[in-house]
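Many groups now describe folds with learned vocabularies. In that spirit, our science desk offers one protein's residues alongside their backbone shape tokens.
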Amino acid sequence: MSIATKLQKLKETKEALRIIAEATAEEAFSSYPAKIQEKINSDTDELIKLRTINNELNLAYFFYCYPNIYANKISSANDLVQKVQNSAINWCKNNNLKKIYNISNMFAGWNYGAQQYVNYDLDISNWSFSQTVEVNNCFGNSFFRSIKFPNTVKVSNVSYMFSNTKNLVEINGIIDISDVNNSLQYMFISCSKLEQVYIKNLNSSELKLSDSLNLKKECLVYLLENAIASETTRTINLGSTNLAKLTAEEIAVGTNKGYTIS
């Protein structure tokens, strides 16, 4: 990533935090944590109401860069959860949320200023999603070791969904991508430790899994067996290491559906 790109991301992060803090453009960046903390301590029900539209829940940017607020103040992910136990994160964890339709950027940036959080298991399996949920960059640059979804979650706009989640080992629950029509090449970029993910109804091009060299064979077989046949040639980039785990017959399941597998 170029210096210019990093500076742009830093600028975007600062602006996102300013919006969350409800700070004016003139206020100092150093004032944002205190303002965000004040919001965290406010009435959670009111916060949830603000994020609800037509009885559907929009959680986009809900915890964006969250641990950075407590950088150098707590030493573990569990301490982080305890620190914010009276905030929205605990409310979400312990309530059966309904009709969640957007979690874009929700947990993104959880590594910024908080590199010590490396082994947290996120369980959102009790959340009730709408028919399709938008997940753009939901977990990008986060520290989670595992993420547990409901049995099946149908998603849209998966760009950078798990990008640079370098500690991620397993994703539990099936990810249905039948409604995705954009490129998938950045969905798992830099997920170098990933071993488990089950993807159903592949119906798009350029899925890239070549950064995840430890993927289980059963996950690769599941992907090909559950891909949607295409009349146009589409690509799946597994990488040579993952490709070597499959037999010619298993690869043929994908190629017979119109996919070029590399």
Summary: The two ends are 25 Å apart (CA to CA). The helical segments are 3-21, 32-40, 44-50, 77-83, 88-94, 217-225, 239-243, 248-255. Residues 187 and 213 are 15 Å apart (CA to CA).
